[in-house]
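worker-3 :: picked Haloacid dehalogenase
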Amino acid sequence: MEYLKQRHIPMAIATSSYRSSIDPAFKQLALENYIDVVVGREDVTEVKPNPELYLKAVQALNYNPANCLALEDSVNGATAAINAGLDVIVNTNKMTKNQDFASVAYLDKDMSTANIIANYFEA
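worker-3 :: tokens ->
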């Protein structure tokens, strides 16, 4: 995140959760230093897998979805991002590791900083 911040690449969170439910982690991790936009459940009428969260986040950043990269942990999230026109890297968690991503056209499953920088951003 520091790499992106130093290069003035904006970042957003598009979550199906209410902002109030992510606020504790957001503050604990000092994400306000990195994240420019947070779009939550209360900001949209449809949540993931509907692309509305991503479309709203991309619009708030004033970017074209084709120039954005989503980092997702679920089939619903990856589907939403793809349907919004974003490329996707998938990184599952304990709750989503057994989901079937076969129907999702994601780019990669390696969320290491080195991989993301080498493959998706100019060094």
